[in-house]
Design brief:
Low-confidence stretches of chain B: 1-22
Radius of gyration of chain A: 21 Å
Shape of chain A: globular
Number of strands of chain B: 19
Strand content of chain A: under 5%
CATH topology of the largest domain in chain A: Cytochrome Bc1 Complex, Chain D, domain 2
Largest sheet of chain B: 7 strands, antiparallel
CATH architecture of the largest domain in chain A: Orthogonal Bundle
Number of domains of chain B: 1
Helix content of chain B: 10-25%
Mean pLDDT of chain A: 94
Distance between the termini of chain A: 47 Å
Order of helices and strands of chain B: HEEEEEEEEEEEEHEEEEEEHE
Strand content of chain B: 35-45%
Number of helices of chain A: 15
Oligomer: heterodimer
Order of helices and strands of chain A: HHHHHHHHHHHEHEHHH
Shape of chain B: globular
Number of domains of chain A: 2
CATH superfamily of the largest domain in chain A: Cytochrome c-like domain
Structural class of chain A: mainly alpha
Helix content of chain A: 25-40%
Largest sheet of chain A: 2 strands, antiparallel
């Protein structure tokens, strides 16, 4: 009994999200039923628990262009809600017109990234760390953290909002990243047609059913080894692979971060949720349609030394799906899109 | 912080109480560590060895290992009186990532002599579709798709081999419960197997090394021709039976240390 009591006290400690003893209003992330029944709970760091005030502050910062050097670009400009928080452009454009080299990643269900490796190459080890980069990236927001901090300190509203969230009017980069990370962790998508099918609330069409069969069939799509299956409805393994896009690499991907030549050309598997809103596809946005993506795995694979062994029949270009299987696979994939996510008023500016 | 220290102290106090009084002699109840090591016919496999075409299987194909992840379950300690001690838990080992190479079954047993066994994979009693959130969340889902009978993978061994045309080709040596989809319902056969590590004296701080010789998966009793059996093995009933048979000689007991 004592043990339980003490454990309860310790748990209560983690709602103190700064080092000054201040406790904001705890916020409990609602875990969707399709996740709760299947996979592990979300990862919420003990030093940055979700709070009502922290999330509200993070949302305001996410949509605020004052984080950029010239006050023209917000996080949301390249992570747009209507695109499942990705960018419809192949490459995002920085404040001075600089063009990026990778497609902006969509943002949802990131609290279930158990490996906590973010970006296409996994170089950020937490959401908080990930947020540090675009603000100072010279081809993105091109700002400095001292400048961001000074801008926010000089505003009429932010000092009070930081005080509500963290119990202090002191504004620094760590608290900015923590607040935005809190908001990002609330971006939960789990209400697609397929989710409702899993809950017994909706039926799949025959085409979608066959598409799922193709997806799960080792001799046809064999998509599930990298993109999950109904038991893991995140629809990504959050792991890095070379999926046969190129013979040589202008972008070394994960290997560029780790320095390990065995990982050249590896990029994180993207989630298959919300594909209806996240074109273009792949790390470099080379495919503008889902049909092109399916054609790639069916006929377009090319060999390179680091290609993943899961890429099958590479010498033939891929798994050679029939036109019917391609159409059905596409229908299934689109059943994973969640209109309620992109229209959720809590996620709009 | 003080609260955390107090919690640890209380936990230790409760744990320390778990002793049996046996005719006045206090018998300690202890945990046991299993340490998993991997080799190719005696040559140790570490992270640096992955993705290098440096091995030759018994049939003669040169090959690399890109991935080696496998599941063991039901580590059981059977004492000389035949009493079994089993936590009923499992461990998913990822060799490339060095994760879970040490496993402490969640059970305390009295010190003494035991025959130590475990199950490679899940037996049918444990191989319950989608029953384990930890495994559903691992490696993009450690599950076997429902059309193949559901349940869980036992092992994902992947890499590349040099085929008869001298090309590098990916292989996926995935072991699961054997299934025959040509029947309705799907015919299933449990292809997990028990590994017996022999008798071990368990003391207050015993560590048992469990060795996997990866070469054995391709060797005995079924000489494995990767040119034929390199891919789409999950729905191949006969291949699953053969992999299970080959697995019987894969594991052995290594060093036992008492510290």
């Amino acid at each position: 009994m004592i043990l339980v009591f003490v454990a309860g006290l310790c748990y209560s400690c983690v709602t103190d999200n700064d080092d000054n003893g201040y406790v904001a209003t705890p916020f409990t992330l609602e875990v969707p039923q399709v996740f709760a029944e299947r996979i592990l709970p979300p990862v919420i760091p003990e030093d940055n628990p979700l709070t009502v005030e922290g999330i509200a502050l993070g949302k305001k910062l996410f949509f605020d262009p004052s984080l950029s050097a010239d006050g023209t670009q917000a996080c949301a400009d390249c992570h747009r809600p209507e695109n499942a928080f990705s960018d419809a452009r192949q490459f995002s454009i920085g404040i001075d017109g600089s063009v990026g080299t990778r497609n902006s990643m969509p943002l949802f269900n990131m609290a279930w990234n158990y490996n906590e490796e973010f970006f296409w190459d996994g170089r950020a080890q937490s959401l908080e760390e990930q947020i540090f980069e675009p603000v100072t990236n010279p081809i993105e927001m091109k700002n400095t953290w001292p400048n961001v901090e000074n801008t926010l300190r000089a505003s009429d509203t932010y000092p009070a909002l930081f005080e509500q969230a963290f119990g202090t009017t002191t504004i620094d980069s760590v608290r900015v990243s923590r607040a935005i990370a809190q908001f990002l962790r609330t971006l939960v998508s789990a209400n697609s047609k397929f989710d409702r099918f899993l809950l017994g609330q909706e039926e799949l069409t025959p085409s979608e059913e066959n598409g799922l069969a193709v997806f799960l069939d080792e001799s046809r799509g064999d998509c599930f080894h990298c993109h999950g299956l109904p038991a893991n409805p995140l629809w990504t393994d959050n792991i890095f692979h070379n999926n046969g896009l190129d013979e040589t690499f202008s972008d070394r991907g994960r290997g560029g971060f780790t320095g390990d030549p065995r990982e050249f050309g590896w990029f994180k598997s993207g989630s298959l949720r919300n594909l209806a809103y996240t074109a273009p596809y792949m790390h470099d946005g080379r495919f503008t349609t889902l049909d092109e993506v399916i054609d790639h795995y069916s006929e377009g694979l090319v060999f390179s030394e680091t290609i993943d062994p899961l890429m099958k029949k590479v010498a033939e270009g891929g798994v050679q799906l029939s036109d019917q299987d391609k159409a059905d696979l596409k229908a299934f994939l689109l059943s994973l899109s969640d209109p309620s996510f992109i229209n959720n008023p809590n996620f709009q500016q | 912080m003080k609260k955390i220290v107090l919690l640890i102290a209380l936990t230790l106090a409760v744990t320390a109480c778990k002793k049996d009084d046996n005719g006045g002699n206090v018998i300690n109840e202890v945990t046991v560590d299993l340490i998993f090591s991997h080799d190719w016919d005696g040559s140790a496999i570490t992270n640096a060895d992955f993705d290098q075409i440096q091995y030759t299987n018994a049939h003669g194909e040169e090959l690399s290992i890109s991935k080696l992840v496998y599941l063991i379950s039901d580590v059981t300690f059977t004492n000389t009186a035949g009493d079994k001690f089993d936590a009923g838990d499992f461990n998913l080992i990822n060799v490339r990532n060095n994760s879970n190479l040490t496993f402490t079954p969640g059970i305390e047993i009295p010190e003494g002599d035991y025959t130590v066994t475990f199950t490679f994979g899940f037996d049918d009693e444990d191989n319950i579709d989608q029953a384990y959130p930890e495994l559903n969340s691992a490696d993009g889902g450690w599950n076997v798709p429902a059309p193949l009978g559901g349940g869980y993978h036992y092992m994902r061994l992947e890499g590349k081999y040099i085929d008869s045309n001298s090309d590098e080709v990916g292989y996926q040596y995935h072991t699961i419960r054997a299934n025959d989809m040509s029947t309705n319902p799907v015919t299933l056969q449990d292809t997990s197997f028990e590994v017996n590590l022999g008798q071990v004296t368990i003391g207050s701080n015993t560590t048992i090394e469990v060795k996997m010789n990866v070469a054995e998966w391709f060797k005995n009793p079924n000489l494995w021709d990767l040119n034929v059996l390199f891919s789409t093995l999950m729905p191949n009933f006969d291949a699953q039976i053969m992999m299970s048979e080959n697995g019987m000689t894969v594991f052995s007991r290594g060093a036992v240390t008492q510290q």
